[in-house]
């Protein structure tokens, strides 16, 4: 048995590359030890079988941003049933079009953003990327969100116009927004600066009761559709490089 060495050192020997390149191959999940991907350059190896995927040039590991279809009854940010617990390798959407190589490090220190009520469902964002976090926190009131709301009741005669024009709320007026019927009991909202409980309150002001809320889109990013239909509740996909909110 040979003396144990760092995996990065073994990769340097096998590829005749720099230590920096070797560490990039490992951190990008391109190196396996006896058939198991190892992402830690300091992992010790001796006589194990080392395989290296050199088809993709080594580069810096980009922080991950994950788009989850949150089911109703799951806490988005705080609570006993956090949505982040759903983000595991096995629940990745089979039609994820991003092409991002799955890494174990992508599931560490994910920050949930853009609140969504526990009983609502739909798109939510979890990220390791400070740039995404800054965009969704600092520019939150400028980013349009789209929802579908199932309602009960009879809408007031001028109800849609009042919703669109901006209802009086907490001493001011809500911003103008887009509201339209999708079916006889389903409204589509596209609005900015939405706050917790706002959609339920807005519906109540025009004689309706919101019974289910689903977020379809944040900015330009939607839940996603693939060959087998929309991404289902509980599944997630990566935000591809170049896709912006």
Task: Characterise the protein shown here.
It catalyses: uridine(2604) in 23S rRNA = pseudouridine(2604) in 23S rRNA; uridine(35) in tRNA(Tyr) = pseudouridine(35) in tRNA(Tyr). Keywords: RNA-binding. There is one protein chain. Helices cover 17% and strands 31% of the residues. The chain is α+β, with helices and mostly antiparallel strands. The relative contact order is 0.17. The protein has 3 domains: 48 residues, Structural Genomics Hypothetical 15.5 Kd Protein In mrcA-pckA Intergenic Region, Chain A; 78 residues, Alpha-Beta Plaits, CATH 3.30.70.580; 75 residues, Alpha-L RNA-binding motif (Alpha-Beta Plaits).
- The rounded Rg comes to 23 Å
* Portion of residues within helices: 10-25%
- Report the top-level CATH class of the largest domain: Alpha Beta
Question: What would the principal axes of the Cα set say about the shape?
Answer: elongated
Give the name of the CATH architecture of the largest domain.
2-Layer Sandwich
Q: Main traits of this protein?
A:
31% strand, 5 helices, Alpha-Beta Plaits, 18 strands, Structural Genomics Hypothetical 15.5 Kd Protein In mrcA-pckA Intergenic Region, Chain A, nine-stranded mixed β-sheet, 245 residues, three-stranded antiparallel β-sheet, single chain, PsdUridine_synth_cat_dom_sf
What is this structure, in a nutshell?
It is built from 5 helices and 18 strands. The protein is an alpha+beta fold. Strands 6, 7, 8, 9, 12, 13, 14, 15 and 18 form a 9-stranded mixed beta sheet that branches. It has a 3-stranded antiparallel beta sheet with strand order 3-2-5. Strands 1-4 form a two-stranded antiparallel sheet.
């Amino acid at each position: 048995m040979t003396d144990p060495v760092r995996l990065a050192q073994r990769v340097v020997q096998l590829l005749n590359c720099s230590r920096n390149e070797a560490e990039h191959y490992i951190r990008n999940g391109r190196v396996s030890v006896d058939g198991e991907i190892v992402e830690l350059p300091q992992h010790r190896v001796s006589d194990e079988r080392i395989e290296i995927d050199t088809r993709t040039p080594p580069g810096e590991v980009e922080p991950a941003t994950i788009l989850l279809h949150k089911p109703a009854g799951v806490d988005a940010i705080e609570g006993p049933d956090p949505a982040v617990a759903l983000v595991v390798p096995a629940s990745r959407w089979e039609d994820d079009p991003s092409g991002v190589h799955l890494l174990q490090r992508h599931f560490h220190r994910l920050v949930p953003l853009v609140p969504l009520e526990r009983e609502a469902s739909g798109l939510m964002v979890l990220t390791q990327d400070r740039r995404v976090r800054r965009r969704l926190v600092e520019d939150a009131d400028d980013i349009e969100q789209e929802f579908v709301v199932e309602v009960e009741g009879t809408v007031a005669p001028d109800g849609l116009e009042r919703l669109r024009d901006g209802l009086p709320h907490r001493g001011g007026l809500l911003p103008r927004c887009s509201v339209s019927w999708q079916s006889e009991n389903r409204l589509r909202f596209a609005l900015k600066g939405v706050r917790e409980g706002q959609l339920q309150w807005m519906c109540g002001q025009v004689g309706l009761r919101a019974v289910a809320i689903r977020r379809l889109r944040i900015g330009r990013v939607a839940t996603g559709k693939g060959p087998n239909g929309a991404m289902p509740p509980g599944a997630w996909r990566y935000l591809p490089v170049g896709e912006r909110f």
